[in-house]
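[agent] plan:
  1. take the single chain provided in the ticket
  2. run structure prediction with default settings
  3. attach structure tokens to the ticket
  4. add a short note for the reviewer (M.T.)
[agent] executing step 1
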Amino acid sequence: SGSVSIDAPASTTGGADVVFKLPVADGTANQVLTTNASGQLQWKTLPFSEFDVWRKTADTTGNADPITDIERVDTGGFEKIGTGMSQSSGIFTFPSTGKWWVTFHMAVNNASSADNCTAQLWTTVDNGSNWVEAATNECNPEGSAQGQHDSTDTSFLFDVTDTAQRKVKFSAASILSDTTVRGNTGTNQTYFEFMRIGDT
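[agent] step 2 finished; step 3 output follows
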């Protein structure tokens, strides 16, 4: 009950033929058709087509490698962009290839003594056979009668060329018994951000 047509331009430069080669299959949702400037068309995922935030759900003490008590943010009107990340036992898988900006924010509280708390962002390029500490940062809550709060951030630009092999995880290290790594199901305290900013 309808038709789709593609019309040639009224004229071309010098009357020459113009050839565009279509991809062999349809793209995935929200991709766009691009050219390589030589007539070959291909499907591409736009930058900033993916953004997701996950958070730690409860306060804990002690080291964690990886942090596993996590959930996608679901309060305050948050809504991910795109497919979003997936995770299993604290190991995150990317929904598409591309260059991804990953940020780890860790909030801590020390009850009495000073502590040198470390936030670690780890990457793997071989599905977890080997992990590399790609980014790390530290904070030093001094401790007091009321407790001392502190936080730290660390980020990394990860080139995800293969979603089956390249993954990330987050760890809390050097956590004393009187230090709490903060987490909450209603607000972001310790959390992880994932943003796709370009093609691989």
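[agent] step 4 note for reviewer: The chain is about 0% helix and 40% strand.
[agent] ticket updated
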